[in-house]
Amino acid sequence: HGPSKPKRIKALDPDVVNKIAAGEIIVAPMHALKELIENAVDAGSTAIEVLVKDGGLKLLQITDNGHGIDRDDLPILCERFTTSKLKEFEDLSSIGTYGFRGEALASISHIAHLTVTTKTAGSSCAWRAHYGDGRLVPAKPGQNAAPKATAGRGGTQITVEDLFYNVPTRRRAFRSTSEEYAKILDVVGRYAVHCSGVAFSCRKHGDSGVSISTAASASIVDRIRQIHGSAVANEVVEFEAADKKLGFRASGMATNANYHVKKTTILLFINHRAVESTSVKRAVEQTYSAFLPKGGHPFIYLDLAIEPHRVDVNVHPTKREVNFLNEDEIIELVCNEIRSKLAQVDSSRTFLTQS
Ligand code: ADP
Ligand code: MG
């Protein structure tokens, strides 16, 4: 028999499309949290509190003291592609905020129960709204879905409950809630080091103490100390690099040759977004191999600012990776700077032991 007849092509139901998209953007609780932290920072917050239950699968709550959300915007808040940050496609090349696609809250509302409580400076009360599948939904079946007036402080509290409740295969893929909590602490810790002027705290539901706590006024070294310990903070040196032609400025903190551990830690921010880069990691490890014993690795915080039009932030659904022009040249200049700092510390140490 010959080839079978092709099946007809049909458009997917919008709810199916949205659920698929949501699963690409929010792979694990840490991705939801990263988006919510970035929103809070974008809103000009100076204090951000995170509360977590069951590794974020049961509850992820983030409370900020930012500018809040207008009551009249609440009905469309969780629709896909609604944003206060991007208007034209061209704006993508000059984007100064973390968010830009208006997809985060929409996605979360398709795979979790989402509650928003928010108060702007101009409003006499806070407003609370519940969301499901991109739309306002009532708090209890049969009730009115409209936002309700409530008491509350200035800023926004986002509560995400039962993440992936309607994606059972994804829900079952998480074996350990403590593993997910560790990833959440990693994300909060990264932003806590990077965001000067913002106080961060992260707490596990039911625990009396906090896992992370930094003050708004803490310096970068103090933030590194609070999150990564004195062993790291006591051995970091500051570095800076810049080049007009390549359109970048870099600054950061790197451990000297007195410090080494089994695994490299790189806190990499490109235009204030926490990202990962295998090429940066490879170059950094190569640089340190001349200074550290075999198997020893450094800690590095690298804050890279690149002219927005040279960066493509839109290559990855979770925005985990970004592409930028002249990557190799920029990385080389940064590593040269680190190398010369390490050499300085190394020679002063040799000098001290000799004298
Ligand atoms: P994006 O950040 O890409 O614009 P989001 O879905 O993350 O999209 O958020 C949609 C909009 O909701 C934002 O543009 C912003 O106006 C508002 N918003 C979200 N979170 C907060 C917050 N914590 N404080 C103030 N406004 C917020
Ligand atoms: Mg956002």
Automatic annotation (TrEMBL):
It comes from the Eukaryota. It is found in: Nucleus. Residues 224-343 form the DNA mismatch repair protein S5 domain. Belongs to the DNA mismatch repair MutL/HexB family. This is DNA mismatch repair protein S5 domain-containing protein. It comes from Penicillium alfredii. The chain holds residues 25 to 379 of 787 of the full protein.
